[in-house]
Design goal:
Largest sheet: 9 strands, mixed
Number of strands: 15
Distance between the termini: 27 Å
Radius of gyration: 19 Å
CATH architecture of the largest domain: Alpha-Beta Barrel
Helix content: 25-40%
CATH topology of the largest domain: D-amino Acid Aminotransferase, Chain A, domain 2
Order of helices and strands: EEHEEHHEEEHEEEEHEEEEH
Strand content: 25-35%
Bound molecules: 4'-deoxy-4'-aminopyridoxal-5'-phosphate
Structural class: alpha+beta
Oligomer: single chain
Number of helices: 6
Length: 280
């Protein structure tokens, strides 16, 4: 398996990163995950824009404009240029003596790899989730590599046989450990506003856009944790999650059987159409 590291494409076992890399010591870095579908990166420009914005927020100077060419080389080397695949990109602040304060003249470390990835047409399997108080920090808008909070929350879900842990903060449902959450009530779609309490998912933005184009009322408003059982439908969105219908949240079932709610189903179909017709 090949990876790209700081200008070279190497066998993964030969790719070496310094133990003084701040990504390793502090989780001081930003990452992105995007999918190539039908030889196009699905909303690739938006993913790279988010990467650039997050790097800017933590003051890592790195120009993302050269990435598309580098990505093409990597995919060619891996013989994935025309295959559906998942691309992981990570930029860390670089190597420096271990101190909180960082020198400004260090070279960021760039790591990328691609793996074959087959997406389901529609995420048809209903999922169950658990809900927990958000114990992460207050800058969830930054897609940082230090994911311990997300990892711990996700672990609780997986060990209990669930897909995700959904968070609430200040009484409102925010997002999940690796996806965003939407609710539907009386024909209106709700999702938490894109502030510092959530990562503004590219899939989240696409779903909002699909609602607007199809005249499905959408409000960026956090649903109260105490009201989740009153909702008609709930679903998760994310690059690898796509649109996944939530059948059960803790002990509460939104529906019995396998058929998601009408609006979730409609958005899943619109999303499928978009993927099939997408050209970057
Ligand atoms: N929230 C969190 C915490 C995430 O890690 C992710 C990405 N997996 C998302 C939301 C969804 O973002 P996207 O749709 O861009 O994959």
């Amino acid at each position: 398996k090949k990876v790209y590291l700081n200008g070279e494409i190497l066998d993964a076992e030969n790719a070496k990163i310094s133990v003084f890399d701040r990504g390793f010591l502090f989780g001081d870095g930003i990452y992105e995950v995007m999918l190539q579908i039908n030889s196009n990166f699905f909303y690739g420009a938006e993913h790279l824009k988010r990467l650039a914005e997050c790097l800017e927020k933590i003051n890592i100077k790195f120009d993302v404009s050269s990435l598309p060419d580098t990505i093409e080389q990597l995919l060619q080397t891996c013989e994935l240029e025309d295959k559906d695949c998942l691309l992981y990109i990570q930029v860390t602040r670089g190597i420096a003596p271990r101190k909180h304060s960082f020198p400004t003249n260090i070279e960021p470390t760039l790591l990328m790899y691609a793996i074959p990835f087959i997406l389901p047409d529609i995420n048809e399997k209903p999922i169950s989730v658990v809900i927990a108080k958000d114990f992460r920090w207050h800058r969830c808008d930054i897609k940082m590599t230090s994911l311990l909070g997300n990892v711990m929350a996700n672990d609780v879900a997986i060990k209990g046989g669930h897909y995700e842990t959904v968070f609430y903060r200040d009484g409102k449902v925010t997002e999940a450990s690796h996806s965003n959450i939407f609710f539907v009530k009386d024909g209106i779609v709700y999702t938490h506003p894109a502030d510092e309490n959530i990562l503004n998912g590219i899939t989240r933005e696409i779903v909002i856009q699909l609602c607007r184009e199809s005249n499905i009322p959408i409000q960026e408003k956090g649903i109260l944790e105490q009201d989740i059982n009153e909702m008609d439908e709930a679903f998760l969105t994310g690059t690898s999650t796509q649109i996944a219908s939530i059948q059960k949240i803790d002990e509460h079932a939104y529906y019995e059987g396998n058929e998601p709610g009408v609006i979730t189903k409609k958005l899943q179909l619109l999303f499928l159409e978009l993927k099939n017709s997408y050209v970057s």
